[in-house]
From TrEMBL:
This is Tryptophan--tRNA ligase. The gene is trpS. It comes from Candidatus Woesebacteria bacterium RIFCSPHIGHO2_01_FULL_44_21. GO terms for molecular function: ATP binding; tryptophan-tRNA ligase activity. Its EC number is 6.1.1.2. It is an enzyme of class 6 (ligase). A motif ('KMSKS' region) lies at residues 193-197.
Amino acid sequence: MAKVVFSGIQPSGNLHIGNYLGAVRHWAKGQDDGLNIFCVVDMHAITVEQDPKVLRENTLSTAAFLLAAGIDQEKSILFVQSMNADHANGGWIANCNISMGQMSRMTQFKDKSEGKQFVNVGLFDYPALMAADIILYSTTHVPIGDDQKQHVELARDVAERFNSRYGETFLLPEPVVGETGARIMSLVDPEKKMSKSDPNTSASVFLFDEPDVVRKKIMSAVTDSGAEVKASPEKPGITNLLSIHSEFAETSMEDSERQMQGLSYGDFKSKVADIVVEKLKPIQEKYAQIRGDDNKLLETLRGGAKKAQEISHKKLTEVYDKIGFVS
Ligand code: TYM
């Protein structure tokens, strides 16, 4: 079976090192193996209110960031979700193959809807669209951070249900969650994951943060009252910083721990800040270069959407036929 990798990211001006370490870095690394498809999921983004101007800018900036972080449009397909209408159509089919009970068990909805006055059906239903994103490409592997695993499992269930009703049609995708980096935590509350929607900007290192801002955030990251730089469940802040270090330095947690042995918390944090600044620099430089020509960027995305649609459309046509839609 041919390897097909699909993953998506919501357009945001607040992409952070969790998005990079938990997902995008793995996407960039895996591009020489199989067919790789990456999507900026703007249709998912409108499950919460979006200013049109900001959405447009964030879509371009997220796509540019993916290219800057190493997604190569010669090797992989990169496109924007709304450029391929098959996703919306497939999302409806997915909807009709998920029970209310199953959808109600999606934990992210509870977090995302909490405290909101107006919660639209799309926010509840979002995993159906995500299932379509994945299964329309006969995806075998879905590289994601830990928080998206439940959604990929739902995509498997949709594929299975459809196959049992209409005959073998969809492959069952596997979630691929890195052993480390899959859950980068907030710098302010290391019991919570680093999140784009966290109103406290000190909680996340954003990919576009200037070096002095990165340093300031990491130097003031919450740790504990101890003195030993060691990963342990009692030291979630130190563990998080060690995992950020080991991911950026591409070493194991144990190696990072060894390198930091005997350092004060202050010196340790300073080393973590050094590596984050060093690794973000080339991404930020390349990003600026790509954004110098938005027309070229749009051309790349349109080209990607065309290639994506060639694949998804074949699958959707098969699906329509099996369901009994006339054409
Ligand atoms: P999104 O845009 O929230 O996040 C993009 C990727 O970043 C990962 N991530 C993290 N990893 C480690 N630590 C963190 N603190 C952290 N925060 C986010 C996410 O797990 C994700 O892999 N629903 C998806 C987008 C999507 C998708 C898809 C993904 C839509 N369709 C199809 C895969 C396949 C989302 O909102 O990701």
